[in-house]
Amino acid sequence: MKNIEKSTEPSSIIDTQPRHEMHNRWPRAECVQDFIDNLAAVQSRIDAACLRAGRSTSDVRLLPVSKTMDEQHIRLAHQAGCKILGENKVQEAWGKSQAMSDLTDLKWSVIGHLQSNKAKLVARFASEFQALDSLNTAEILNRRLELENRTLDVFVQVNTSAEPSKYGLAPENVADFMAQLSPFPNLRVKGLMTLAEFSSDADRVRACFIRLRNLRDQLAEVYGNLHLSMGMSGDFEIAIEEGANVVRVGQAIFGARSLPDDHFWPTGG
Ligand SMILES: *Cc1c(COP(=O)(O)O)cnc(C)c1O
């Protein structure tokens, strides 16, 4: 199923304005070839952004995000080469991992806020958790991981936009938080994660990514080269220009979601 709209999106776009306004225009991928095409298009935009920024493409990992997508579409994505998928809701991710346990090479990365009562599920099936922002959750996760005899790669989520609706630690609290993670050896702290301000103003988006990079640089003396997970379908090129090592891309691969993003980032957290 070839989609005409898709070809209007140049693969080597130079303009790095965030394209949030495009979210409802990504056509849904419906066959393996659609996924292959979309993955190739995203990868070539990643490569172009790396080239502009003088970075090596091997320093940037693409994490496809499959939240809200059903099993049928996820199986197509897997056939097109996706071996790890990001999901922001634990229950949903757990259900999918169970339903697709026959895909033994498929791993799951939980990228959304975790309530401590769901930590035991994450300890069971996730290979990565990108939204750590509480010591209570860290403690429970670590205990559950011990019981499962597993370790988990984690990213500490930072709220770089100061928006109260976003989860994550305030940048000034991250150093203290990191220092208190040492009693939890089953958590392997790999990096920092953020969501940029949801804005069509590229400078405001970029400022969030710069904040995360500066934080990483401040922490480098103690923690070495922490990876930066930042950038989504609408802004991953800006994120790469500012140092992203992981970009989390859903809609540019799977197609638009039917619900607005604030549905996934509930307020009052
Ligand atoms: C949904 C989501 C993404 C991907 O967003 P897209 O617009 O689909 O690329 C990235 N990170 C997090 C935490 C998300 O919840």
From TrEMBL:
InterPro entries: Ala_racemase_N, PLP-binding_barrel, PyrdxlP_homeostasis. Residues 1-22 are annotated as: Disordered. It comes from the Bacteria. Its cofactor is pyridoxal 5'-phosphate. The keyword Kinase does not apply. Keywords: Pyridoxal phosphate. The keyword Lipid metabolism does not apply. Residues 39-257 form the Alanine racemase N-terminal domain. The modification N6-(pyridoxal phosphate)lysine is found at K67. It holds the Pfam family Ala_racemase_N. One of its GO terms (molecular function) is pyridoxal phosphate binding. Belongs to the pyridoxal phosphate-binding protein YggS/PROSC family. Pyridoxal 5'-phosphate (PLP)-binding protein, which is involved in PLP homeostasis. Monomer. HAMAP family: PLP_homeostasis. This is Pyridoxal phosphate homeostasis protein.
